[in-house]
């Protein structure tokens, strides 16, 4: 594990998730760039002192000579450190689990993609929400044509936790609003990219163009704290994306609504165990997380009978378990990976460019000619 | 009453609304352009045969000489007939109740505004949703600063009833998708303008600029059946507006969310008796329609104790009752009127222009210079 | 109208309900036992002074000789005055609309039943909630066997408004907690009987036996302010009934859940436009108030398209409109009437007797032998 | 671990729960009475073959001589095996984690209590729902007097999974409906006792008396599949308890509502991350699972920020983690233990006796004199 030392949020989540199914064991790490904090974190996590390394290079070198060497590298640092660590990991042939956004730029993302193509290591980008069974079921419903042609895709990810200027004590907030660590995107990169990935994941369609407006509500903040965008999907659907981290009263409201010609779907992350199917001229149905009501593939992401709530950790653990399966030869093509990372970075860059250009429709693949009337 | 003959939807609603409080009586009308249907409608509505007129001019002339002449004209025709009828009514000094959208063009709206300024008649534009007590309460909460400076305004109005190409039997659908009767805007003019008015009504702020994308999902339809737009309010808030009439499973989902620096509000028309107040870092509150929990002004729109649901008809009746009060000298400045109509037509025209211009930010007041970077 | 003078709650509701469809006109009344309040109420209600009577006898006598005499008597007084007024009305051949509970005792109810059998007048007991379309639809679903044999019936009616000892200013509260006016039952008679009627109405089954526990939470109150009871239906279903008027935070939470062998139903009065159908091993469905999704009979109680909320007043008006149809020969057998009143009074007396007897199972028809093991 | 072999449901849940926080390790077990299934289960669970024992006696004997002996015994068998295993474990000085209902009879429960008093081992009864942070917060709100004196306690636990006669393949269903394995109570013992424990846990009050009605809806079933009961708490509150396992459409609907003189609380297990506080004459509040909004004690049961759902496994893991703390000297007095088990068995026996006696109010402590008028 790289990052995730004392006080880190997402590192602790990764550890719970990997423990849940007994498929991973935490053996080594670079938990902090501060030596004492690094050592202390290792101690607390029952990692042997000699496997607590000063940096990623040392870790790879040190592990390479061990018989019980690590097989996978988990990267849970702030954004600016993702690229180098992932690249080194892939080059060393390790499997890599990496937090989003994958890199700081689309160019870096492309380089990582190339490295992954040359590596024996598998790559998992932890877009957590793809691990929810009802999201996977939604994806299958769309793929099977239950909605017909898609018309609208409305995705939102709204939080309150950056509603006021943070003090320096809040480590989570500090790096996320610091361009040198978070990159050029604030809210857009932290959660907007989750919303984007979720929309692509469930629709099975790529976003072709975006018209975006970034804004910063909190005085003195260097990066955007909200983004509002219109989207065009390659399949023709029109979409809207709203992400904000300065919205009082919204805890973690990631919601997705998909409108098709035959039916619509609605899902909200805060109540992840239900999915609404809204057929044309018929009663809406509350689909629940039941292994007897989904495909075998989706049922693998279900641990408990319906009515026994599963949550964020189980969703995360589903990614880890499926990644273990994937690595062991039981291919799990749905897992978020390099391609999601490249798309996410392109989306971030296109949204920033569009916003800078007064909302001009901007193609994600950089081909200007594809921008056009109403995207 | 002009329009509202047999089989009409909104005319029947107007009649229930005006009866509820015993402040209006239906005395005369032009219920249909088809003579037999006109006569038959009058009979069913207990309107005396001699007060069933062939057209508005005849009605005004016929009533003018009666001792028990009508005092108000209610216009519930398809859109293209609003302007002439309203203009004649105002010129005759009658009070006018008119359905939205007020006219076919902003230019007509301006002319009507001028006519209203010269007339002794009062003018009510039936933006129904302003009649809901919790909407009025929301408006007061914003005005009193309970939310602080506004950041985001998300408004949606989504329906399913035009999801497929309608057959000719559906009179409601037929004229709404016919440009000669509905005007240049389909969904945008039918319900988009409701969403727009509601957002302005509750925020107390005007929309300065819009970047819109209209689309038509149903093949063969001449007008838009959905619109997605980014908004900029004069007070600086950024907004999004989504209206669609081709979204399966959505019955009449008008929702409004307002995000301020101190708290957010959320309201959904399908559950109109509750309003969510979501303060920063504190539990969300479910405000209910209780006369002891709102101002005296809002309490006038409440008929029943909390927990006894009021609905669409009561909301409509609130407009009528307040209009009666207004006409009788008890001014009800909040009532939607000419100004709302002018703004609505400007919004429609700006949205159409923006969409035609590839989403370029377009000022509602026609002043091009106000369009600019990100609106 | 008898009762319903200035400041009265339910009288005003009746008047809105009867106006809504233009099938009734308020012509005469005894609005208060206080002469000045009586006269003043008549004036406000546009009732001619000479048709404002001192008591029911005078009203019946006075109207009898008029050409434009009233046809129906509406009784909205406190409970203790229901019986005499209804009896006089029926004897005079008038149609009678009466508030619940119908009388003070089951014996009175039986006498009224006998009088109704001899009268040309029709009788409507205003159990409001039977007027909701989704309740009527639920009743049809049960009758058609969509649920299979019924297993459980859970009904609740919970309010907060009598949570503390009321001061004398609250006229509504005062008589409801005064045994000389309300009768022997407090909460049980005021809302418990609504819950009871609703359960019988929707299931189409009579309650055979009850085991009840009444209690009084507010010190100094002479009557019960809550009741908890187990029920046995004649068809074998077991039920529970909870009514309370001293439950903080509950506005008017009347809810009904019916469990059958094939499916369950759930409905809540505060969201009356939806009904949940919960089939075995299949997604729950949100049925909404749509005239195209219910029988023709139920569709008559629907005024607006789905998604346009209807509420308490519309439900009430449905009773009035159907009563007008019934009186005019278009029989509406479902309307709550004398039989509901008799059953309600038997339930009240059985519940009081059971509670006094330590919860002994008590038959509603007074046949002791039917009480037995677990009812 | 005793029980929990291949195909078992709750055993797998226990294992996920104990792994989540890295405080327990599964080292030995008696996973099945069938030798091959026992061995196979051990293999799958990475338990050394020599630590896979034939029965509990062998396990205790075998482990006693090991240096790395187990410290705790986890009992996840059908009910009839709980008592012996728990007794042996306690006698051997082991910590014991036991599923509910604790034993088959209250007498056994008392014997276990005596054994626990003499043992150095700690005892955890896995009433899962006590592990939910919002339940713990509710308990503190009641204890701090935020609700005032309690008036009503409504608790329900309703499932559909035994709605039809099960076939023999369903191992979960088979033993639960077999009196020789489940004991004298079916639904009552399987989930009714959870509802009972939850009500006592949150109110901090013991149930003094019960008037119950058990029933069996599914033909051929030997035990009850539903129970409806009235309760009296020692503090005076009146309550109702409904449990059913034959209710179509109910997945795992455990709900608790507590009505106090100042406010009410409402919680539903299927949405465990929110708790409704309903004050008198004020807006209801949606309390969410936030560590900054609860006491330090409750915050220990929270793993993620608000809006990131936690569920059933996390709740279960909270019991395990707190039990580890408790065992290591950091007393966690709130943990469900022997006393809950004794109370639960008394409740089961009192409910059965009451139902057999036609619903007579029955004291839980066996003191007949305490039964009385309305309990």
Automatic annotation (TrEMBL), chains A, B, C, D:
Pfam families assigned to the protein according to its UniProt record, in alphabetical order: GFO_IDH_MocA, GFO_IDH_MocA_C3
Positions of the GFO/IDH/MocA-like oxidoreductase domain: 135-265
Domain Gfo/Idh/MocA-like oxidoreductase N-terminal: 7-119
Protein name in the entry: Gfo/Idh/MocA family oxidoreductase
Organism of provenance: Vreelandella malpeensis
């Amino acid at each position: 594990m790289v990052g995730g030392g004392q006080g880190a949020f997402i590192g602790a989540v990764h550890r719970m998730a990997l423990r849940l199914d007994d498929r991973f064991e935490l053996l080594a790490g670079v938990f902090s760039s501060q030596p004492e904090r690094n050592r202390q974190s290792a101690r607390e996590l029952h990692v042997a002192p000699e496997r607590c390394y000063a940096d990623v290079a040392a870790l790879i070198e040190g592990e390479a000579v061990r018989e019980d060497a690590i097989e996978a590298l988990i990267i849970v640092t702030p954004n600016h450190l993702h690229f180098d660590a992932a690249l080194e990991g892939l080059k060393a042939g390790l499997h890599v689990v990496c937090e989003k956004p994958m890199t700081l730029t689309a160019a870096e993302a492309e380089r990582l993609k190339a490295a992954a193509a040359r590596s024996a290591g598998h790559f998992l980008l932890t877009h957590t929400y793809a691990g929810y069974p009802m999201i996977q079921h939604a994806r299958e419903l769309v793929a099977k044509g239950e909605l017909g042609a898609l018309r609208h895709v409305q995705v939102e990810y709204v939080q309150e936790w950056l509603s006021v200027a943070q003090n320096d004590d809040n480590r989570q907030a500090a790096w996320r609003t610091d361009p040198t660590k978070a990159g050029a995107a604030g809210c857009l990169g932290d959660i907007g990219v989750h919303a984007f990935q979720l929309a692509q994941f469930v629709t099975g369609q790529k976003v072709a163009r975006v018209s975006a407006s970034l804004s910063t509500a909190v005085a003195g903040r260097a990066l955007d704290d909200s983004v509002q965008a219109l989207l065009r999907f390659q399949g023709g659907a029109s979409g809207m994306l709203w992400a904000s981290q300065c919205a009082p009263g919204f805890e973690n409201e990631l919601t997705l609504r998909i409108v098709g010609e035959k039916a619509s779907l609605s899902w909200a992350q805060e109540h992840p165990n239900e999915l609404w199917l809204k057929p044309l001229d018929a009663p809406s149905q509350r689909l629940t997380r039941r292994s007897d009501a989904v495909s075998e593939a989706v049922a693998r992401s279900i641990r408990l009978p319906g009515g026994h709530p599963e949550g964020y950790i189980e969703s995360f653990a589903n990614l880890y378990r499926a990644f273990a399966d994937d690595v062991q030869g039981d291919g799990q093509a749905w897992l978020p990976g390099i391609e999601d990372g490249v798309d996410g970075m392109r989306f971030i860059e296109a949204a920033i460019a569009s916003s800078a250009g007064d909302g001009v429709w901007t193609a994600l693949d950089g081909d200007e000619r594809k921008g056009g009337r109403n995207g």
